[in-house]
Write a structure and sequence with these properties.
Helix content is 42%, strand content 16%. It is α/β, with parallel strands linked by helices and 393 residues long. It has 2 domains: 214 residues, Rossmann fold (3-Layer(aba) Sandwich); 163 residues, Glycogen Phosphorylase B (Rossmann fold). An 8-stranded mixed β-sheet has the order 3-4-2-1-5-6-7-8, with helices on both faces. The protein has a 6-stranded parallel β-sheet with strand order 11-10-9-12-13-14, sandwiched between helices.
Length: 393
């Protein structure tokens, strides 16, 4: 039987929320559901800030054919060295190859996981690891590079410009991308040959949701827009808060904002009474909120895939994204289910159009759902993944 190994710093379960971990977990599940034996190699950590060993080491079956192996995180990293070099990278300062190696050496690591791969690596048809930024997948993929595929979840950020990252892209056998813009970015940065990269993406489970239920449960009589995910500058949430505050002030429209996810909400004071903050919402409530929204607004310019945008499409809700977010714009273009803005005047014009044209919202919503069901069903993802890996089932 064909065996595959997936390597990620965290297992996407037990409260762990992260796009890269979710994607790797779903790819592993796709593979196992098609009759391939899958080992998911991860650490005992849940928190990506502290990297403490919160879970005991050991193995358990997460699904038929999918076995999760947890290994302890090494506790001898020099955090001061890591943070000192990382701060220089974030400031776009020149960092020598030696310091880049020191930065990666003091990232999160698991010697026990590496020992497992040294022993079992030859028995795996392929080893897939990601995201690119952490020590665990970096060092794991270097153990058997001839049978390793990187799942980078690459962003246009300062870390991506380091030579140690470029070397990783060149040494692995292949690269699994989430979208065409992500693959194009890697080719611009690293000049990798075309044959090394394949766009696969992630499968999403179809769902249906009552578009009126959320507003009814929250006693909302005004239209609302929605965002789901982390609230932080890299995701564009400060821009969203400022833009929506200006929109309400300039147009006089009573539009509410529904938020799901984690992080602070430093909203203008006038906007605060018009925010419905769900925090960590259940999948059911999140989908119901999406289904009733006039638009799902995703202002991030730093994505390799847009999971929540595609979920909104499944809920038949159009997207409104930032034009500089190449991946999200690409998803809107391909699907015909979204618009994109470059600055506030375009944001205002497009949001007014979405609020006022129910027929447009319906057409875009139908197009978005059809797109996700066609491109991101389990069969399509499995076929693309197995084709990239040369697996026959």
């Amino acid at each position: 039987m064909t065996r595959l190994a997936f390597v990620s710093p965290r297992w996407p379960g037990g409260g762990v929320v992260g796009g890269a971990e979710t994607l790797l977990g779903r790819l592993a599940t796709h593979a196992a559901s098609r009759g391939v034996a899958v080992d998911f190699l991860t650490t005992c950590a849940r928190n990506h800030h502290t990297w403490t060993n919160d879970d005991p080491p050991g193995a358990f079956d997460a699904a038929p054919g999918l076995r999760v192996h947890r290994f302890p995180v090494s506790e001898d990293r020099n955090l001061d060295t890591f943070l000192r070099i990382q701060e220089r990278i974030c400031r776009n300062q020149d960092v020598s190859p030696a310091d880049q190696r020191a930065w990666m050496a003091n990232s999160v690591h698991s010697p026990a996981l590496y020992d497992h791969l040294r022993r079992e690596g030859p028995n795996y048809h392929a080893i897939l690891g990601g995201p690119y930024l952490f020590g665990v997948p970096h060092d794991a993929l270097l153990i058997h590079p001839d049978r390793s595929w990187l799942v980078p979840c690459l962003h246009d950020e300062s870390f991506a410009y380091q030579s140690i990252i470029r070397d990783l892209f060149h040494v692995v056998r292949g690269i699994i991308f989430n979208s065409e813009p992500e693959m194009e970015l890697a080719r611009r940065l690293y000049d990798i040959p075309a044959f090394k990269g394949t766009v696969v993406g992630m499968g999403l489970d179809a769902f249906t949701a009552d578009p009126a239920k959320f507003a009814r449960s929250r006693n909302l009589s005004s239209p609302y827009v929605m965002y789901a995910g982390r609230r932080e500058p890299l995701k564009g949430t400060p821009l969203l808060l400022d833009y929506l505050d200006a929109f309400r002030s300039r147009t006089g429209r009573d539009v509410k904002l529904v938020l799901a996810g984690s992080g602070d909400v430093p909203a203008p004071e006038a906007l605060l009474p018009h925010i419905v903050d769900l925090g960590y919402a259940s999948e059911e409530e999140k989908h119901e909120a999406m289904a009733g929204a006039a638009a799902f607004i995703h202002p991030s310019v730093n994505e390799s895939f847009g999971i929540v945008l595609l979920e909104a499409f499944l809920a038949r809700t159009p997207g409104l994204v930032h034009a500089k977010g190449e991946v999200l714009r690409w998803q809107c273009e391909r699907s015909g289910a979204g618009m994109w803005f470059r600055h506030y005047p375009e944001f205002e014009s497009m949001l007014l159009r979405l609020l006022d044209d129910a027929d447009l919202r319906r057409r875009m919503g139908d197009a978005g759902r059809a797109y996700v069901l066609r491109e991101y069903n389990d069969r399509a993802i499995g076929d693309r993944l197995f084709s990239a890996l040369g697996v026959r089932v």
